[in-house]
Amino acid sequence: MKIGDRVRIIESVIVYHHPEHRGQPLDIKDREGEIVSFANEWQGKAISANFPVVVKFDKKFRAHLRPDEVEVLS
C-alpha cells in the first residue's frame, strides 16, 4: 500500500462527517478512493495512530481508516 493507490473499503465503516450527511451515520463500505497520506508522523516524531491510512473519496471527503479496512485495486 502506498500513496496514490486506488482502494476500496471492504468492511462496514460508519462515518458521521460526510459533507452531504453531516451528523448522520453513513456506511462507506464498497466506496472507492485514493490513498493521500499515512498518519505515522507528527512534527517529525513517529506516532502510532489507530487509523493511519488517509483516503480521499472526493473533493470534500476524506477518512482515516485502518489498513485491514481497505483493499488495493489492481
Verbal overview:
- The N and C termini lie close together (11 Å).
- A hairpin with a 2-residue loop joins strand 7 (53-58) and strand 8 (61-65).
- By secondary structure, the chain is an all-beta fold.
- The strands form three sheets. A five-stranded antiparallel β-sheet has the order 8-7-4-1-9, with no helix packed on it.
- The protein has one domain (6-72): SH3 type barrels.
- The model has no long low-confidence stretch (mean pLDDT 93).
- The chain has strands at 6-9, 14-15, 26-27, 32-38, 41-42, 45-46, 53-58, 61-65, 70-72.
- It contains no helices and nine strands.
Which key features would you list for this structure?
single chain, mainly beta, SH3 type barrels, 74 residues
Secondary-structure blueprint:
Elements: E1 6-9, E2 14-15, E3 26-27, E4 32-38, E5 41-42, E6 45-46, E7 53-58, E8 61-65, E9 70-72
Antiparallel strand pairs: 1-4, 1-9, 2-3, 4-7, 5-6, 7-8
Instruction: Please give the number of β-strands.
Output: 9
Give the strand order of the largest sheet, numbering strands 1, 2, ... along the chain.
8-7-4-1-9
Anisotropy-based shape:
globular
* N to C succession of SSEs: EEEEEEEEE
Q: What's the CATH C level?
A: Mainly Beta
